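Lecture notes, unit on protein representations.

Consider one protein chain, 491 amino acids long.
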Amino acid sequence: MSVVAGSEPGLGLRPYEDVAALRRGLDGIATLHDDGVAISDEAGFRGEAIDRVVASAVFGDDALKTTARWLIRVAAPQLGAFPASIHDLYLAAGRGEYANATAPAINVRGLTYDVARTIFRAAQATDTKIVLFEIARSEMGYTEQRPAEYAAAVLAAAIKQHHRGPVFIQGDHFQASAGAYAKNPEAEIKAVRDLAQEAIAAGFYNIDVDASTLVDLSLPTQAEQQRRNYAHSAELTAAIRSFEPDGVTVSVGGEIGEVGKDNSTVADLHGFMDGYLPELKRLGDETGRTLTGISKISVQTGTSHGGVVLPDGSMADVSVDFGTLAELSRAAREDYQLGGAVQHGASTLPESAFGRFAEANAIEVHLATAFQNTMLDSAAFPADLKERIYAHLDANHGDERKSDQTDAQFYYTARKRAFGPFKRELWNLPEETRSAIMADLEPVFALIMRNLGVAGSAALVDRIVRPVDVPVPSPAQAGALVHSELTGEGE
């Protein structure tokens, strides 16, 4: 039986016991200093060490998590993998330097280290470097993955798989809740702003701002309908620019149509952008800065998050308006020099549809539920664990069940909520079980990369996206900084 390095037979990945044990475990492999890490045995670090370090970053106590996450963050660039913004690449598409390549933005809800490793393997097999790892504001809650944990798992996977080049980590749907906004607008926008700051500090250099929930279609013109959307999107863009590290231009995305609602139009795009750009300039003028705007725009052309499940558990056919998508992407490029339009909620479409996103020149497509389904419905997924997941959903989320839903429909829509409560149990599945599940996923990732036109993109990405040296204070340095701020010392 094959066993993951750092694990015991039949068990998943094991964290170190504490920070002292982590340091001992790295003896002869890497030495931690206040200003970084010195790696003396690269192969050893990519082997047992990184498996245990990433488990510590997820399941250790607070001190161990903090140390392990910092270690991954500073080690990754030394080993060739660095957090990066896709902004310059998308603007190159807007200038026509490349076309018909739609970036897959993949939401990883569970088994994040294993799934990210599988994505990197598929990317290497297809010579792909246009791929984003993303997690939405809502997903951070039910999967129990804050930005620092998510970024650590993705970067650790890059280290493990010998990835060299940019790692695009994205905050998806950093969304203003319409309900929360109605109760307290300032507090809700502040919550999104604070999350963006937390995510950027963790290495998320791609943020999708989503105030499309605040669009009011009852108003007579597109400009009026989009006013709250463009005003808060500009406000959040300005905040993101104040948080980004020196030398990094965070890729910011806007959104004009809430997924699952009415399809977007070019008039909607104009209504948003013709308000957003002057508002962003006004905010920049107030601070004496020239503020860089969004690099892409998310639109709605017929999909819904997770697809639509029928009473028997099968998926309903979805009709995507690829003509409208192509027209929106063209207008975004030609009228505003953006990378193009972004499509959400597309992973459950048939394989034959993915080539049409590239044909429509969509710059990005967001994919989540189909990969979740492949994992949970894999023949290798333990039946007893699935039964306990469904029992948990009945006991804890039964109030979310609609009166006309069948069991198949309820479990399909609710089972994403199990990734947080069952996170440790999933990570602790035997290596052979996790490997079998990942074997189901890898060809799906590779096929989508080919169909979306990003296979063979590595040289293009390496030419345009260059590493930026971003200092990351060690836990000891961060503690000293906090101490000096509290006491006034060090001024």
